[in-house]
């Protein structure tokens, strides 16, 4: 039972490069979330989705874009990476009938 | 808007001592509240949740939390700390699933257990 899977697990980017982080869940959950985790700041919500084809901004959306073309996948894009985007990124999913979210193992991104 | 405040970014306790991690929330609607634990280089694991049923909630690994509406608090406790409890703990709040669907976290408390 895979749950929530994030790829890649590690990545180093140069400033100005672009990349896409993939989150895949096999639990048929309606809601999906992208967070970034930085020391002393907890997890901050970047974007989220309440269903296929829908997305919404969270607390820190600037510099990121997302898409949810398929229910099981939620993509997070960085069009022009900046050192300030160095962070650990977590994806989570949640069923509409359940209260709690389930998390992936994280992606550690370094922008140099 | 919802928010969560965790008092104390670092807490140290002796093995066998009481663990108390504090969480206060703000929500304009009845909240759902959660505690998660994160071990080094891992994702987040749910410890327990409050969803408007019993105000005293029991979770895994001997942890429990009490929802106090009058104090807008949801503090996490464990009677006797174990070395394996050393980790970072996050409190989170969400409104009812019919609300905004956001899931907001506090800044975390790192628990250190001393031998």
Structural account:
- The complex is a heterodimer of chains A (112) and B (115).
- Chain A is an all-beta fold and 112 residues long.
- Chain A has no helices and eleven strands.
- In chain A, strands 2, 4, 5, 6, 9, 10 and 11 form a seven-stranded mixed sheet that branches. A four-stranded antiparallel sheet of chain A has the order 1-3-8-7, with no helix packed on it.
- The model of chain A has no long low-confidence stretch (mean pLDDT 94).
- Chain B is mostly beta strands.
- In chain B, strands 2, 4, 5, 9, 10 and 11 form a six-stranded mixed sheet that branches. A five-stranded antiparallel sheet of chain B has the order 1-3-8-7-6, with no helix packed on it.
- In chain B, β6 (56-58) and β7 form a beta hairpin.
- Chain B is globular, with a radius of gyration of 14 Å.
- The model of chain B has no long low-confidence stretch (mean pLDDT 91).
- At the A-B interface, β4, β5, β9 and β10 of A face β4, β5 and β10 of B.
Say what oligomer this is: heterodimer
Give me the count of strands of chain B.
11
Strand content of chain A: over 45%
Distance between the termini of chain A: 36 Å
The main pleated sheet of chain A reads as: 7 strands, mixed
- Fraction of helical residues of chain B: under 10%
What's the overall average pLDDT of chain B, rounded? 91
Unreliable residue stretches of chain B: none
Question: Mean of residue pLDDT of chain A?
Answer: 94
Tally of helical runs of chain A? 0
Poorly predicted tracts of residues of chain A? none
């Amino acid at each position: 039972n895979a749950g929530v899977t994030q790829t890649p697990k590690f990545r180093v980017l140069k400033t100005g490069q672009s990349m896409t982080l993939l989150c895949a869940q096999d639990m048929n959950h309606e809601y999906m979330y992208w967070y970034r985790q930085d020391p002393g700041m907890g997890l901050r919500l970047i974007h989220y989705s309440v269903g296929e084809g829908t997305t919404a901004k969270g607390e820190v959306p600037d510099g990121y874009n997302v898409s949810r073309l398929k229910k099981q996948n939620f993509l997070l894009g960085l069009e022009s990476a900046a050192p300030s985007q160095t962070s650990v990124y977590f994806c989570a999913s949640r069923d509409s009938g359940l209260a709690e979210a389930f998390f992936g193992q994280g992606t550690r991104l370094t922008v140099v | 808007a919802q928010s969560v405040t965790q008092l104390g970014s670092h807490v140290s306790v002796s093995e066998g001592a009481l663990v108390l991690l504090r969480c206060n929330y703000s929500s304009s609607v009845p909240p759902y509240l959660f505690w998660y634990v994160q071990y080094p280089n891992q994702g987040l694991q749910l410890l327990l949740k409050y969803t408007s049923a019993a105000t005293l909630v029991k979770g895994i690994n001997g942890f429990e939390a009490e929802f106090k509406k009058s104090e807008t608090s949801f503090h996490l406790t464990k009677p006797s700390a174990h070395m394996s409890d050393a980790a970072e703990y996050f409190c989170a709040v969400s409104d009812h699933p019919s609300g905004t669907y956001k899931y907001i976290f506090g800044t975390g408390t790192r628990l250190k257990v001393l031998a």
